[in-house]
Specification:
This protein is α+β, with helices and mostly antiparallel strands and about 625 residues long. Helices cover about 45% and strands about 15% of the residues.
């Protein structure tokens, strides 16, 4: 159903718009179903929200499309424009509105961190917090980050372990490998130790040349003292630092500190931002960040969204941003003071038109285009494999269309107890984990996989019909109305026959369904005596194996949880004096009911709340 709305069907917002404050805040645009389709910020709410419902003249196609779908809006007042920007980011991440530009996986990029400890370490982290640590990154390439960490671990003699430092240890392996000055065995004082940490910090900040003179001096002292082994070790370290420094291109002789941002857009609306990190005139790194956008989004809007989302979590905000495109005026009005507030200092936003700075932007823009093309080619390669697998599967099973949504059912039981079932969903060849469902078998006694499969299929498709099942739950809530293009049941002809009969019992006779027998990976179809065998190297076979294995894993996990709860309940709940707290303490101490059963009374009384009398009662009951 189209949601395009002629002007006569939209409520008259005149009174509400006039009542809005000329103050900072966030606005949320909603469609006719109540879904939030756009979140925006404003330094003056009345002016910004009113602008959407004025003349379409001058509006870009995306905004005109958005406005056609707006039937309601909410606003949230904030004290400052900076607070509005922060709230906008939180709401975008929460609701992921259709018309917002979204930085993909913005919370997952790793950083290197020098910890704020008495004896600091260099570690990997994905969370930037205000804890006094020093952060470097982000790294979109985990391989490059690990390579950098490996290099500085080899170059600088800070500790690599996470043990508590007391100075009383007897041995340090890293010390004997000349990779740590070993505070754990009191082999170094803190000022000397911190020299290694500070050298690592200089190196990560692009100031590696500043550590060469002290290393060369130390090497000369070692040679003068005839400590040639130490001198050779320092010589190798100096050569390694020089090798890295030679690869760090000096692109700004005046020691500029800046982030350089450029946008690339593909023909299908895919886009990304390339960020170059310039420190002390050297290009320390350049990372590509994919963004979710549409064909109508313009580069200035993409950059504005990137800046506000990326620097919300960034460890470092430089004093200068060099941009390929100027930010929209309304966006820059909010973003610029917020950046200054976050940095607690001056931040310039510049779009250079000529000279060295323009050349830097063009260099980063070229990388953006190349990386977007590589990302697109990789995506197309993956999409082509998936399309090939689904097409091949459709042909092999004589399906009327490509099975874009596949549901797979599996039964899990052990000696007829705690029988459960799983339903996993794959959409376009990828797991749709929010669609997964678990079932506790309710109408089957003992171990009967055929009857259990029949129950699950009936329950699933009754709900699809909007018919109440035996649980009496509400079934027309939309969660079950998405229908599969193909159902896979884990098992051979017997399981398939039970599932087909179950579909007929609930009046669902047109559903495409197949049974997958594990032993020879045979696919059985209703009414066909012979199995379908896919080639061993086919993409379709790889896909259904992955789906079947995922269904089995999901069912087994649920079964183990049920069995564990039943085991604990049946064995411990009937022991007088053992309540939830003591039961939890016992399981934590001995791991399982079996462990409790094998423990001695002396072991049992070591658990808080277990008296000698209660321990004797436990042993007797178990």
């Amino acid at each position: 159903m189209s949601t395009d709305l002629p002007p006569t069907t939209r409520p008259d917002f005149s009174a509400r718009l006039a009542a809005l404050a000329v103050a900072p805040g966030v606005y949320l645009m909603k469609d006719e179903t109540g879904n939030i389709i756009y979140v925006g910020k404003a330094a003056a709410l009345r002016n910004r929200v009113r602008s959407y419902f004025q003349s379409e003249r001058g509006k870009d196609p995306k905004t005109r499309e958005l406005v056609r779908h707006i039937v309601d809006f909410d606003v949230i007042r904030t004290d400052t424009a900076a607070e509005a920007l922060i709230l906008e980011n939180e709401l975008i991440k929460k609701h992921q509105p259709k018309y917002n530009i979204l930085l993909k996986d913005s919370k997952t990029y790793p950083y290197l961190k020098i910890t704020n400890e008495e004896w600091p370490r260099v570690i990997i982290t994905r969370r930037v917090v205000d804890d006094g640590g020093r952060y470097y990154g982000p790294y979109t390439s985990a391989g490059q980050m690990h390579k950098t960490l490996h290099l500085i671990n080899r170059l600088f003699t800070y500790r690599k372990c996470d043990k508590k430092i007391t100075g009383n240890d007897d041995l340090c392996l890293y010390y004997h490998m000349h990779q740590c000055t070993a505070p754990c065995i009191s082999a170094v004082d803190r000022p000397t130790y911190m020299k290694a940490v500070d050298s690592a910090a200089l190196f990560l900040s692009g100031r590696g040349d500043e550590i060469l003179a002290p290393l060369e001096g130390e090497m000369q002292q070692a040679a003068d003292a005839w400590n040639f082994e130490r001198a050779a070790e320092l010589r190798d370290r100096i050569e390694a630092v020089n090798h890295v420094l030679e690869r760090q291109k000096i692109v700004s002789p005046n020691g500029l500190n800046a982030d350089i941002l450029a946008v690339a857009q593909g023909p299908g609306g895919d886009a990304g931002v390339q960020a170059g990190f310039l420190r002390n005139g050297k290009m320390l790194g350049s990372e590509f960040f994919a963004v979710r956008s549409t064909l109508e989004d313009r580069p200035p809007e993409i950059l504005a969204s990137f800046v506000s989302q990326f620097y919300m979590d960034a460890a470092v905000i430089p004093p200068l941003l060099l941009l390929e495109h100027r930010l929209p005026a309304a966006e820059e009005e909010v973003i610029a003071p917020w950046l200054r507030e976050r940095r607690a200092g001056k931040v310039e936003i510049v779009v250079p038109q000529r000279g060295d700075r323009r050349h830097l932007v063009e260099m980063v823009a070229k990388s953006a285009s190349e990386n977007l093309e590589q990302s697109r080619l990789k995506f197309l390669s993956d999409e082509m494999k998936t399309t090939a697998a689904l097409t091949e599967l459709a042909e092999a099973l004589d399906l009327p269309r490509m099975p874009r949504r596949i549901e797979c059912f599996d039964i899990s039981t052990l000696q007829g107890t705690n029988t459960v079932a799983s339903m996993v969903v794959f959409e376009d060849g990828k797991p749709a984990k929010r669609e997964y469902r678990r079932f506790t078998i309710k109408t089957v006694e003992g171990s009967d996989d055929f009857a259990s499969m029949s129950e699950v299929i009936q329950r699933r498709f009754r709900r699809a019909s909007g018919t109440a099942d035996e649980e009496g739950g509400k079934t027309d809530d939309g969660k079950w109305t998405k229908l599969p293009d193909l159902v896979i049941v884990d098992g051979g002809k017997g399981q398939l026959s039970s599932a087909v009969a179950a579909l007929e019992a609930v009046g669902w006779t047109g559903q495409a369904i197949t049974g997958l027998a594990k032993e020879n990976e045979e696919l059985f179809l209703p009414g066909r005596p012979d199995a379908v065998l896919l080639p061993r190297d086919s993409q379709a076979l790889y896909l259904i194996q992955r789906i079947r294995d995922e269904a089995h894993r999901f069912a087994i996990t649920f079964h183990q949880q049920k069995r564990s709860k039943t085991s604990i309940a049946s064995s411990l709940d009937n022991v007088p004096g053992i309540g939830p707290t003591r039961k939890k303490a016992l399981i934590r101490r001995f791991g399982s009911v079996k462990g409790i059963r094998e423990a001695t009374e002396a072991d049992l009384v070591t658990v808080a709340g277990i008296t000698p009398a209660l321990a004797a009662q436990l042993k007797s009951s178990l």
